[in-house]
Write a structure and sequence with these properties.
By secondary structure, this protein is mainly α. The chain contains 9 helices and no strands. Belongs to the UPF0177 family.
Length: 257
């Protein structure tokens, strides 16, 4: 076990998130009602893009490995079926809701895409990109290593959402608890996509699809869902999918670069 790389990975993952959160919260509390303005999403996109570039460079400097963004899959026949479950869970809703996006004025369409893409890029670069590389260089090789990496990155990914309680217009604690559980299993699915393909391209794609909703002044607020629906459809199904796709007999591609 390389403890230095382990703690370094955690510090960078949480540190870059805290940097993003500190900057955005400072803006939101300094400029009243900014959270309810559509142009905040452009500010958010700019902030997370700059931090994402910084994370990409850190991966190269700390581990000597570049995060792979290429859509090319080397062993396509062996990986094509891993897209079925993510498409059912997140792609169908995207297709069903895309019409509502394009009914908006053009500037709100751009805002909606900027918000979704910003989250997809930042969180996947940080978690499935840097996090996967970092933990891969932390744990000794074993047949369970891919599952351990998926668990660690997903846990760090989901727990960051508790800081949403600090936002000026904050969701309820129950809504955030549901968001944390949902994003933990979401992260597990995206770990499968990144480790089975060797690129974070598809994790970014599905993440952005999952986050794309029509912009409204309260679009950042989380609604409370049915716990049974959440735990079974968006919990149990992704868990079984992850256990199957990252089982010891499967070939894993941590990074193609």
């Amino acid at each position: 076990m390389n403890w230095k790389n382990f703690f370094r990975t955690i510090v960078v993952m949480w540190g870059t998130f805290l940097l993003y959160k500190t900057v955005t919260l400072s803006l939101l509390y300094t400029l009243p009602n900014l959270q309810s303005k559509p142009y905040y999403e452009f500010i958010y996109f700019l902030i997370v893009t700059v931090i994402s570039i910084f994370i990409v460079r850190l991966a190269k400097n700390l581990f000597g490995i570049e995060i792979n963004f290429s859509p090319v899959i080397k062993k396509r026949k062996k990986t094509i079926f891993i897209f079925v479950i993510p498409f059912i869970l997140y792609g169908i809703d995207f297709i069903g809701g895309i019409a509502d996006i394009f009914r908006q004025p053009i500037y709100l369409i751009i805002v909606s895409f900027a918000s979704a893409l910003g989250a997809g890029l930042f969180e996947e670069i940080r978690d499935r990109g840097f996090g996967t590389i970092g933990f891969n260089n932390s744990f000794p090789n074993s047949k369970w290593k891919p599952l351990i990496i998926a668990f660690c990155t997903s846990f760090l990914f989901c727990t960051t959402h508790y800081l949403n309680l600090l936002m000026p217009i904050a969701p309820s604690l129950e809504a955030v608890n549901q968001q944390v559980i949902y994003t933990f299993f979401l992260g597990m699915v995206f770990s499968v996509l990144s480790m089975r393909t060797g690129t974070i391209f598809y994790a970014i794609l599905f993440h952005s699809m999952n986050n794309l909703v029509p912009w409204t002044p309260t679009s950042d607020l989380s609604s409370v869902s049915s716990w049974s629906n959440l735990l079974i459809i968006y919990g149990l199904v992704p868990l079984l999918y992850t256990l199957w796709c990252l089982r010891p007999s499967k070939e894993i591609q941590i990074n193609n670069s």
